[in-house]
């Protein structure tokens, strides 16, 4: 996605720090020396949790859990999951090789954590903090979407309700929730929205706020539309479509302001709340 995007505007949509797509700037260490020893620094946490490389490390547990969960879910997986078939093909259809690949992924994750900690650029306490922050967003996520729809005069559409898809077991819904958080944020936020941000800023030379607005709107509409495509897609209902557009926009803002990992965990935990707990 090209070089590091530049911040050219101070609009309310424009964060005062580099967006989550900045792959080159190193955030500060997550600790600072005080008279009481090493303490969590909120500003450093904000930087680290938004850094893309760190985000990729922080979501690796979800990747491994999901990829292994697919094996015991009867083949149920997320609609934009492009990795499972690829990994199964790479494993030659052998379960032992497939498991070995994921063991290797765990080793790579552990190595990445060790390197980042060695450079004093990451502390493991970031992960539970990211999960906790995301859980708060997830708890209020549905209410926020409904509130926005009501403010836009779309409350009449809410009576339609959201289609939850075919009957599935609790375990299958758990796997689907994790897969949705991981792969949909990867495809629609990190890749699609990130690409649109790059095009708006670098290729078209737009101000940061305009590039962000265009990226949020386009990626959110596509995110919602994809859920209605294909034989397994939901039948089109305007209420469902608009709910997902607004949900996609909120996730896009979380991604833009708080980074990839927080968006992934917020999405996954919200789906767990809706599909598994409620």
From TrEMBL:
Quote the Pfam families the UniProt record gives. Answer: Rce1-like
Q: Residues in domain CAAX prenyl protease 2/Lysostaphin resistance protein A-like?
A: 169-272
| Span of the signal peptide | none
Q: Which GO terms describe its biological process?
A: CAAX-box protein maturation
Q: Where are the transmembrane segments?
A: 56-75, 95-116, 137-164, 170-192, 204-226, 238-257
Which stretches are tagged as biased composition: Polar residues?
Answer: 1-14
Q: Does the keyword Ribosomal protein apply?
A: no
Question: What is this protein's name?
Answer: CAAX prenyl protease 2/Lysostaphin resistance protein A-like domain-containing protein
Q: Out of the domains of life, which is the source?
A: Bacteria
Region annotation (Disordered) maps to 1-26
């Amino acid at each position: 996605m090209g070089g590091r995007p530049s911040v050219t505007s101070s609009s309310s949509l424009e964060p005062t720090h580099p967006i989550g797509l900045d792959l080159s700037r190193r955030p500060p260490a997550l600790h600072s020396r005080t008279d009481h020893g090493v303490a969590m620094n909120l500003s450093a946490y904000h930087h680290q949790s938004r850094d893309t490389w760190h985000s990729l490390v922080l979501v690796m547990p979800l990747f491994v859990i999901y990829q292994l969960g697919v094996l015991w879910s009867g083949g149920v997986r997320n609609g934009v999951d492009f990795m499972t078939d690829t990994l199964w093909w790479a494993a030659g259809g052998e379960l032992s090789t497939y498991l070995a690949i994921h063991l290797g992924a765990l080793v790579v994750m552990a190595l990445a954590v060790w390197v980042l900690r060695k450079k004093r650029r990451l502390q493991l306490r970031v992960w539970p903090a990211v999960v906790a922050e995301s859980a708060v967003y997830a708890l209020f996520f549905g209410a926020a979407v409904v509130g926005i729809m009501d403010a836009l005069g779309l409350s009449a559409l809410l009576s339609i309700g959201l289609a939850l898809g075919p009957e599935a077991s609790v375990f299958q819904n758990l796997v689907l929730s994790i897969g949705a958080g991981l792969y949909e944020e990867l495809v629609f936020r990190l890749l699609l929205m990130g690409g649109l941000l790059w095009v708006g800023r670098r290729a078209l030379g737009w101000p940061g706020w305009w590039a962000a607005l265009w990226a949020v709107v386009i990626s959110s509409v596509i995110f919602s539309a994809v859920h209605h495509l294909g034989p397994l897609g939901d039948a089109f209902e305007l209420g469902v479509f608009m709910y997902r557009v607004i949900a996609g926009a909120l996730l896009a803002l979380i991604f833009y302001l708080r980074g990839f990992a927080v968006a992934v965990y917020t999405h996954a935990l919200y789906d767990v709340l809706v599909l598994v707990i409620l």
